[in-house]
Amino acid sequence: MVTPEGFLLDVDGVIVESWQPLPGALEAISDLRSRGIPFRFITNTTAKTRRELAGTLASAGFEIRPAEILTAPSATAAYLRANHPGKKCFLIAKGDVDEDLDGVELVGDGGEVVVIGGAEENFTYDNLNRAFRMLMDGAALVSMHRNMYWKTQEGLTLDAGAFLAGLEQAAGVEAVVVGKPSPEFFRAGLSELGMHPEQVAMVGDDVRNDVLAAQDAGIQGVLVRTGKFRPTDLEGEVRPDRVIDSIASIGDLLA
Q1: CA distances (Å), origin 210, targets 47, 83, 103, 143, 255
Q2: 236 assigned to some structural domain
Q3: Widest CA span of the chain, in angstroms?
Q4: Could you read off the pLDDT of 13-45 as tens digits, one per residue?
């Protein structure tokens, strides 16, 4: 593995779990700053805006600015403005993510675009059925990510990808996915760093959406054994560039 000059870092499962810092995470981020190693957080978390996410992480002890965070909602807003300008969008998500959907018209009915985020308890039958009917009437389907599950203090928890798959199958459509594993999302991170793919490593706990997707974009993929990691993630033809026990070992990548 080539020594990285910069990093793209996942958030949930890598530096925090249930918004509490994982062991060694505070020290690892501080160490990157002291070394002058540039990094950006690139996350599929959709329940918080960049401002809220930076505040939540600050409460956990991290010194992180909103400008250092790339979120799936902000990337989704850019995609909708460019590809569906002026279209009415029906959103299923949790939290105040509409703050990051600047320039996007959100409606409760008659959506021309169905937008899926991490909705948790908002994935109700009523919301999903309304989305299904809009898709059957010709609406486009856009998803902030395709994660199937993530890890909380209570254990593995279903994520938006499980519900997205049902909508795709029922309506006979295929979603455009804007967050990870979309290569455009990784390229946005590279642009923020001002670096080429071969100079950067992506560190994540999701072997497919973080590690393999980054490798497909020409970025080195580093898998951590925290968060949603399972030993079966390393079976078959899966080949991360490196596997480390946790973010606390990120300094080993710079040796």
Answers
A1: 19, 25, 28, 16, 23
A2: yes
A3: 56
A4: 999 999 999 999 999 999 999 999 999 999 988
Residues 113 and 167 in one domain: yes
Instruction: Establish if 131 belongs to a structural domain.
Output: yes
45: left (phi over 0), alpha (psi -120 to 50) or beta: beta
Is the same domain home to 185 and 166?
no
Question: Would the pLDDT of 98 be above 80?
Answer: no
List the end-to-end C-alpha distance of the chain, in Å, as a whole number.
11
φ, ψ dihedrals at 31, nearest 5° = -65, -40
Beta-carbon neighbour count of residue 154 at 10 Å? 7
- Domain total of the chain: 2
Residue 46: predicted pLDDT: 85
Strand order in the sheet with 220-224: 69-71, 39-43, 6-9, 200-204, 220-224, 242-244
- Tell whether pTM > 0.85: no
Q: What is the mean pLDDT of the chain?
A: 94
For residues 134-153, give the mean pLDDT.
93
Q: Per the domain annotation, does 55 fall within a domain?
A: no
Are 220 and 1 within 8 A, CB to CB?
Answer: yes
Query: Tokens 């899926």 label which residue?
Result: 116
CA distances from 88 to 17, 91, 137, 246, 254 (A): 35, 10, 14, 42, 47
Give residue 82's domain range.
74-177
pLDDT at 232 > cutoff 90: yes
